[in-house]
Design goal:
The protein is mostly helical. It contains nine helices and no strands. It has helices at residues 26-42, 71-83, 87-96, 98-106, 114-117, 120-123, 127-136, 138-141, 153-161. Helix 2 runs antiparallel to helix 3. The relative contact order is 0.08. Residues 40-59 are annotated as: Disordered.
């Protein structure tokens, strides 16, 4: 309809305005700008508040420890984890130290140390899934490795870099 608006350097001629593959172009940029300015005009809103939620928000965790370990017992379990090669022992001790590890992950100051305290996550397959099952239960955990449509891929990668 408007041949002078066509982009001679693009494949179809309209990618400058909107490229459906990358979701970019003038139209996408303009919509984002309008939404951002509208949000600024409304003032501080939900978009600026800290994000809360996720799969387990508002739910009680399915896993509850039979008994709470003392600090000494946790230290012994962690020491054993570092020096054993028996996979069954590793899985059992990781279950026993779940509460301690979960508290560590939720502590902003200690969360970066999880892999140094529990290095078995790096060399024993299935431990992250085991923790996920303990945290969210079997029904949710069965969807942990479910394949998602590839349309989410770019957004997930972008969000992970933030």
């Amino acid at each position: 309809l408007f041949p002078y608006l066509e982009d001679p350097y693009s494949q179809n001629g309209y990618e400058h305005y909107y490229d459906p593959e990358s979701g970019s172009g003038y139209i996408a940029w303009r919509l984002k700008t309008i939404q951002r300015k509208a949000a600024e005009e409304r003032g501080p809103a939900v978009s600026q508040s800290p994000k809360v939620g996720g799969p387990g928000h508002g739910c009680t965790r399915p896993f509850t420890a039979d008994r709470v370990l003392t600090d000494e017992e946790v230290e012994c379990a962690i020491a054993l984890l570092r020096h054993t090669a028996d996979e069954e022992t590793i899985r059992e001790k990781m279950k026993v130290t779940f509460e301690y590890r979960h508290a560590m992950v939720n502590d902003e100051n200690k969360s970066a140390e999880v892999f140094s305290v529990f290095p078995r996550f790096l060399d024993t397959p299935g431990l992250i899934e085991q923790d996920f099952r303990m945290m969210f239960g079997e029904q949710t955990a069965n969807k942990f490795l479910e394949r998602w449509p590839t349309t989410f891929k770019a957004g997930v990668i972008k969000e992970s870099h933030g």
